[in-house]
Amino acid sequence: MLAELALQELRASLRGQLILPKDAEYDAARRIHNAMIDRRPALIVRCSGVADVVAAINFARRHEMVVAIRGAGHNVAGTSLCDGGLVIDLSRMKSVRVDHARGTARVEAGATWAEFNHELQVFGLAATGGFVGATGVSGLTLGGGLGWLVRKHGLSLDNLLSLDMVTAEGRVVTASASENVDLFWGVRGGGGNFGVATSFEFRVHPAGTVLAGMVLHPLSRSASVLRFWREYEGTAPEELTNGALLFHAPAELALPDVLHREGVVGLGGVYCGSVDVGGKVLRPLREFGPPAADIFQPMPYSAAQVMADFLWPAGSYNYWKSSYLTELSNAAIDTIVAHYAEAPSLQTIVVLEHNGDGAMSRVAEDATAFGHRRWPYNLLVTSVWRNAADAEANIAWTRRFWNAMNPFLADAVYVNYLGDEGEERVRAAYGAKYERLVALKNKYDPTNFFRMNQNIRPSVS
Ligand SMILES: Cc1cc2nc3c(=O)[nH]c(=O)nc-3n(C[C@H](O)[C@H](O)[C@H](O)COP(=O)(O)OP(=O)(O)OC[C@H]3O[C@@H](n4cnc5c(N)ncnc54)[C@H](O)[C@@H]3O)c2cc1C
Questions:
Q1: Which residue's alpha carbon is nearest to atom 50 within ligand 1?
Q2: By C-alpha distance, which of 44, 74, 37, 129 is closest to 314?
Q3: Closest Cα to atom 48, ligand 1: which residue?
Q4: What residues have CB less than 8 Å from 348, skipping those under 6 apart?
Q5: How far is the CA of 195 from the centre of ligand 1 (A)?
Q6: Which atom of ligand 1 is nearest to the CA of 194?
């Protein structure tokens, strides 16, 4: 038990809030995106700025407490919370400063992509963030950063110019191409293993109005739609980032009956360039079938940033499996289609991303710690359901599906899509770079103070 005096000292050292289990706000403060995660930290430090982060780290180190770092709390693995221990909660640190003349912007670590791009839209600019606006800038960038501009402008971390970080010793450092260069390599992919990032400076891009949306076909056409998409996306220019989804639309969406009856195979994307040229590029996609519904339209980038958010509502139960595919063969497509037809939950979504043949593949493999840049397809089975009692059926189905996909899976995974899957899968996220990350962990966090993450275990402790 922590002495009352120690807690008083901690509280007095903060500009932000100290939340304890007895406080009325405690349950709300320990709630994150994935309802599967039900952890009870001893202390939640809701930071107001860098000084609070330093105070929280120093306190946790002195009292030998486990530490978790919370950006937006969106990660499925739930590592932004710990049982017992201290949560460094950055979710109230959301300021954004845009330097539109230089084409750069600085954002604090608690902002989401929706919030960041909301501010950038004022200047007709956008940052390359997630496919979903509710994801945190922090966790997403430190692990990679796949989103609607990835084929044109690369990963979020490819656009990172510098970040401020507090280390396990409570030191405030900047990492960039000219300062703490080894750390800058590691934080671009190595997740929360090296310290608490407090703010990020990004290169941002003109993207005022984009052509964005989706064509929707009945689920019974999945096999032919996915075969068409495989051919189409292979010819699409880098201005178009697009993907395929199998899902069931919420009843309140005004869509043709057949889509509500059967479910949907959707081909969605964002064209960031001239809307007229985008119209021509998208014509084959919009004409194939034809689709039962076509909701592509010009919109501000900030609206495109959040257009898929409704598919993954906060507070649902999530269990995910993901890997890159060696190929999207007919057999792989047929396996996906057959298993999705048996999904126990109508909230479950299967996503096929096509990212790895644009700007991200032109960055040298060893330039950053990010694991895999060149696999063309990334498959995600995102099992999502509403009632706790349905966990077993959904998890069992996801595992059956995943076993059936085994012949088509690369031994390579995107670290940010991992659940709590053990060291072997973390190694699969980094491949040959894992040992270099261990060496960096030995230097910056030899005691594994930051271990609530996809952990790179130091070899010295
Ligand atoms: C519905 C959904 C959609 C998603 N869509 C995308 C997508 O389109 N593209 C994509 O690339 N990823 C996507 N992801 C994955 C996403 O990148 C990760 O979940 C990411 O961790 C979210 O960031 P966060 O700040 O909310 O993380 P949190 O859950 O807050 O934190 C997760 C971990 O990240 C680390 N971390 C977070 N903040 C910091 C910090 N400031 N300093 C140091 N370490 C930190 C910590 O280790 C922490 O345990 C999605 C996830 C979900 C659930």
A1: 135
A2: 74
A3: 80
A4: 247, 340, 381, 382, 383, 384, 385, 394
A5: 15
A6: 43
Spans in the chain with pLDDT lower than 70 = 1, 461
Task: Measure CA 419 to chain center.
Answer: 12
Q: Are 297 and 212 in contact (CB under 8 A)?
A: yes
**How is residue 212 annotated by DSSP?**
E
**Residue 276 CB neighbours (<10 A):** 9
CA angle 252, 258, 262 (to 5 degrees): 90
Which residue, judged by its Cα, is nearest atom 18 of ligand 1? 75
Distance 134 CA to ligand 1 centre (A): 10
Q: Can you tell me the distance from the alpha carbon of 117 to that of 134, in angstroms, rounded to the nearest whole number?
A: 11
176-198 per-position pLDDT tens digit: 999 999 999 999 999 999 999 99
Say how many Å lie between the CA of residue 196 and the centre of ligand 1.
13
Instruction: Choose among 129, 115, 133, 126: nearest CA to 300.
Output: 126
Predicted local distance difference test score (pLDDT) of residue 300? 98
Q: Dihedrals φ, ψ of 224, to 5°? A: -75, -35
Sequence-separated (6 or more) residues with CB below 8 Å from residue 24: none
Task: Give the pLDDT of residue 1.
Answer: 64
Q: Is the CB of 69 under 6 A from ligand 1?
A: yes
Task: Using the mean position of ligand 1's atoms as its centre, give its distance from the Cα of residue 279 in Å.
Answer: 33
Q: Ligand 1 center to residue 140 CA distance, Å?
A: 4
Task: Return the closest-CA partner of residue 279 out of 296, 256, 261, 302.
Answer: 296
Of 52, 57, 74, 372, the one to substitute when testing ligand 1's pocket (max ligand atoms within 8 A of C-beta) is: 74
Indicate the pTM of the whole model: 0.97
Report how far ligand 1's centroid is from the alpha carbon of 319 (Å). Answer: 15
Tell me the three state secondary structure of residue 246.
Answer: strand
Beta strand ranges found along 32-114 (DSSP E): 43-46, 67-70, 86-89, 96-99, 104-108
The C-alpha atoms of residue 120 and residue 362 are separated, in whole angstroms, by 26
Strand pairing class (86-89; 67-70): parallel
Q: Residue 459 and residue 321: Cα distance in Å, rounded?
A: 28
